[in-house]
Specification:
Elements lengths: L1 H20 L3 H9 L7 H28 L4 H14 L3
Helix pairs in contact: 1-2, 2-3, 3-4
């Protein structure tokens, strides 16, 4: 079960990062929150570090999405290039 949870956690994290890179920020945000906990001590330490990175990105995405809410498509495209500067490449 531990190995299965770990694989699922890595898969979800990978999907979240892929969606983030593709500028699908709402889906990335949803996937970051689906990340299951890792039960073992060593795995938990590794996941905690990665999760902190993801939580930082979640806050960036929330801020970005709030700023772009109600903005025209042209404005969204200009704003999304700013999000790329802080996102995954």
């Amino acid at each position: 079960t531990h190995n299965n949870n770990w694989c699922k956690a890595k898969e979800l994290a990978s999907k979240a990062v892929d969606e983030d890179k593709a500028k699908n920020y709402e889906e990335a945000l949803r996937l970051y929150f689906l990340h299951p906990p890792a039960p073992s001590s060593k795995a938990k330490q590794s996941m905690t570090a990665k999760c902190q990175e993801y939580l930082d990105r979640v806050e960036q995405l929330k801020t970005f999405l709030k700023k772009t809410e109600g903005v025209s498509n042209a404005g969204k495209q200009a704003s999304s290039s700013q999000a790329d500067d802080k996102g995954y490449e």
